[in-house]
Amino acid sequence: MEYHESIDKSAEIARLVLPTLTRLQLPANPVNFALWYEYYLGGNEPLKNILDQVLEGKEVLIPELAAKLHHDHILHGKSDQLRQISEEIRELLSSVIGLVGNAGVDVDKFSGSLGQYSQDLENLKDENAALELKSMVKDMLDEARDMMKTNERFSQQLDTTSREIGMLRAELQDLRIQASQDALTGLGNRKSFDEALERALENASGEMSSVCLMMVDVDNFKSINDEYGHLIGDKILRFVADILRRSVKGRDQVARFGGDEFGIVLEETPPTGAYRLAESIRQLISKSSLKRTDTGEPIRKVTVSIGVDCNEPSDTPESILGRADKALYESKNLGRNRVTCTMERPNLG
After folding, report:
1. Count of Cβ atoms closer than 10 Å to residue 94 Cβ
2. Which of the four pLDDT bands, split at 50, 70 and 90, describes residue 249?
3. Looking at the structure, do residues 313 and 200 belong to the same domain, yes or no?
């Protein structure tokens, strides 16, 4: 969403949001803050109706519900802005075309006048020729000045319109990024993950082209939240996201699939390469030591379970995702902190 409130107005809303989060024992993370900011700002009636239930104690705002409300009632609203901005850009481009067309008419008119004047000069034969020539020259100069003024106005309008188009394009790009980005980790969100997986499978052609999918889940994340609180839980999610981001390259796409689960789409990657990468990620996270920033005390060991699968010729996004998800839950069932492949385990040599 785009907000235009004054500093005083936004401060007033913030003074309402923070006590509400404290009273409901909710962490003041970006998702919760945005939900209640939107609630007190007013105007988002569907969201208000749901959060009224939370205030009345009829509904509990668990993290999964908060994330869904944020996606459905705040991020989803950006689609209307995208359409509006796209329409404004189209209107501005039409305006530019019109300006160019008008300028072209003026230039054509002037060129036609010059041709006619040239013809008239050849036909001058009597004693009034000098007066007629003087009159024609004056008319030519007047038209030249008019055309110059028109072109000057056109240039100014074109500069203004170009700046407006540039600003709208920048705003449109920002909205597109926000609409496809997870607010907590900065990774792509579920929408960008689905698009990346579909695009990768469409691009995969021929026997040598391979798309591998990796599903990563933080082990015992609920108990970590229960023991340390949601702020530490968020810190752990950002820590895992950073390792995943630094572990991939090129066209590979990392996204927060939802909650404590992440997805990685690997293009042109053979099964052995995908398995090696998954093992590398698992070991990096398992060997890391995290501490609380407030007390310096160590946080218990963080591990992840990973499921890996690579595409088959007839695969759809749903089919490869189903197999990778199955592999992930097999890793969970076999004791966590491990990598499982649904295909035959690659020979690592």
Report:
1. 10
2. confident
3. yes
Element (H, E) at 255: strand 253-258
Question: Could you tell me the CATH number of the domain that includes residue 224?
Answer: 3.30.70.270
Is 168 inside any structural domain?
Answer: yes
End-to-end CA distance of the chain: 52
Tell me whether residue 288 is in a domain.
yes
Name the phi and psi angles at 171, rounded to 5. -65, -40
pTM above the 0.70 mark? no
Active-site annotation, residues: 260
Residues 230 and 124 both lie in one domain = no
CA dist., res. 29 & res. 32, Å (int): 6
**Statement to judge: residues 136 and 207 lie in one domain:** no
Angle at 215 between CA 259 and CA 302, to 5 degrees: 65
Report if residue 185 sits inside a domain. Answer: no
Cα 269 off chain centre by: 25
Judging by beta carbons within 10 Å of its beta carbon (0-12, 13-18, 19+), is residue 300 exposed, middle or buried?
A: exposed
* Counted domains in the chain: 3
CA dihedral 291, 293, 294, 300 (to 10 degrees): -20
* Model confidence pLDDT, tens digit, residues 189-226: 998 899 999 999 988 865 556 899 999 999 999 999 89
What letter does residue 136 receive in the DSSP assignment?
H
* 263-311 pLDDT per residue, tens: 999 998 889 999 999 999 999 999 998 888 778 888 889 999 999 999 9
The answer to whether residue 113 sits within a structural domain is: yes
Range of 146's domain? 79-179
